[in-house]
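Section: Multi-chain targets

For targets with more than one molecule, the full set of components is provided together so that the structure can be written out for the assembly as a whole rather than chain by chain. Components appear in the order listed by the source. The example entry contains two components.
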Amino acid sequence: MSSEVKNEMFGKKRVAIVGAGLTLFRRNLKETGKELSYEAAKMALDATGLELRDMQSVVMGSAPDAFDGVHMKGEYLADGAGAYNKPYSRVFVGGGTGVFTPLAGWWHVASGQFDTCLVVSEEKMSSCYPHPQFAFTTIFDPILERPIGMNLVWIFALEMHRYMHKHNIKKEQIALVSVKNKRNALDHPCAQLGANITVEDVLNSEIMCWPVQRLDVSPTSDGAAAVVLASEDVAKEVTDNPVWIDGVGWCIDSTHWTNRDLYYPDYVECAARMAYKMAGIKNPPKEIDVAEPYDPFDYKELHHMEGLLLCKKGEAPKLTAEGVTQRDGDLPINPSGGLLGVGNPIAAAGTMKVCEIFWQLRGEAGKRQIPADPRTGLAQAWGDLMQYGSVIVLRR
Amino acid sequence: MSEVAIVGVGCVGFRPITPELSYKELMFEAAVKAYEDAEGINPRKDVDVFVTCAEDYLEGFSIFDEFVPDQLGAALRHLFTVSGDGMLGLATAYMLIKTRQFDTVVVEAHSKASDILTYMDIVAFGLDPIFNRPLGGHPYYVAGMEMQRYMHDTGTTVEQCAQVVVKNKKNAIENPYAAYGSNITLDQVLCSDICFHPLKKLEISTPADGCVVMVLASENAAEKLTNNPIWVKGVGWCTETPNLETHDWTRAEYTRLAAEMAYKTAKISNPWKEIDFAEVHDLFAYKELQHIEALKLCEYGEAGKLTEEGITSLDGEFPVNPSGGLLGMGYGLEASGMQKLLEAVLQLRGEAGSRQILDAEVGLAQAWRGIPTATGVVAVLSNVK
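Its structure, encoded as tokens over all components, is:
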């Protein structure tokens, strides 16, 4: 492939991830948001041998300011993320932020504007006392929806129910996702909720809002994650095995979630098609070796596998039951343990998925390493009012 | 090669209140105007990426981008939020187009300040929650302290600061997008209440409602969308530090560094000579002076004198804030940078009406994110490729 053709495909400059860092994910960490950002950024930089002064730009990802009670949270976190006297901005697309932040880093480098970009995602949900769920009551339309007093679990219950009804899916099939991910998380040193549980445990757990039960849901968490991005020239100097960002995609659907059929995430498909087109991927199930779709609820992993075109609509539960999505299966899904197992500090959780694909493609995932020698991986996050998809395709 | 141009602009406002329009309607109107301005571009098909610039607390929701796609024509398309000033949206659009993956990017920023009942409480929520916020008080005391320090270090006088207000409010009379144009005297400014010593009431911009939408395009696309593209020659942005205790209180370091970045790309070595006018952030009157210096348009400490001598007036040698600035147009919150860009585009297109600067070829726009930040953006625009 001539270098000119390559440039047209991947942006002006090809962009690599050269290092990743991740803090512990816990319900309530003592560190401030700035300190969490610092820890993740420092770990990512140390992994590359680069220093902060080598970072020409910084991008921050963090979800609602309502968690922290700080207006302009991006400004507040800037120094923790290393953005002292540097070009710095914060991107924010709800739950989709974690995968979106590296996408923002991608265009900083792919544009030719910078050779390096430090990408940091942070979430400190525990500041929202007594429970971050109260912050989520402010994501609804103040006239049409907020007066009903709804919360997130309600609307996801609607979506889960619709998905189950449309494809005639049983709760037992969905619970397998929670069992798999929490078990995978036992091998993750940062994980908050790794556990050996059974389908029975999930089905017997507290009903929150039918059909959502306690063990169908990821926890609330504190944590941070970071990746270091570099242009092709710099990447090759820094490491022998860069992981290339070959596809980026994002998409938002209408505000009016009440007007769409919730059984299928069209916006995730739209984002995936954008990323696949850029990466030249024609047959996703064949060409993607490992994927980290967003799994704040167990049914969402299935929902997103379908939206990402990794299987046919309604087919994801079958693949899960057959063990295809296990680490040693044909299409390992969420080998990290996902949000269900590792935890869900919103923006950091999405970037954790990007870190996991980075480590898997480099063969550095330790006990979590999938045996299939993966070459191409994908991470995806989802957010807003069941409305946003962000997708990244990585290649070794 | 792969230059980036502004090919369409649309503005609604700026007005003290807009009771007949919701924030969505403000955005819709500005977007329709911008799309019409770009040869009637169809957002459902022809726009690759949409960027909205907003902060949750100013909107009264969490996750503001939820409420954005429909009125911009962006449902099931590629949109996201930059939590920052509209000019950070410009910087983002610039980079996106430079990747060569995208030809057309729309940037939106707005202010529905009249919906906010407790604006100053929100500003106070921007202060560090551990070190600064517990001290209490109105958050603009920070501006008063900074003005004092700036005057002390540079020898700038209160009269020179007040002259900025007289000039800007006068310019705003000629600007149909301005909310607070007026003919006032230096004495009136000097005699207005001292709110945060030495900062006076008339030296503080008043918020206003409005929305600005811009369409940016790659070189190829620009030629199809407009006859008078305004080229983005360079963009720079910088965050100095969020800590009040350690930021430079005299020199706007964030603007100096952002300007260096923008000038480097735009290949500008002598800003005063090579740039014809500037739109700088004047949330407070003294900030205009501080920013002029940080932009290297004059020597450190000289901006006050230039203003006093009328050199930065509309008919002066180097007009600053021909739009009337934020003091005259009203402070458009996260859209304030877009107000600056809008004026630069109109001037460079020769569409600035009675406030037109003759033969303007290169213009500069600069934004700051207000108290308590030290974040700024600088863009150099030109009507010559």
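The mean pLDDT of chain B is 97.
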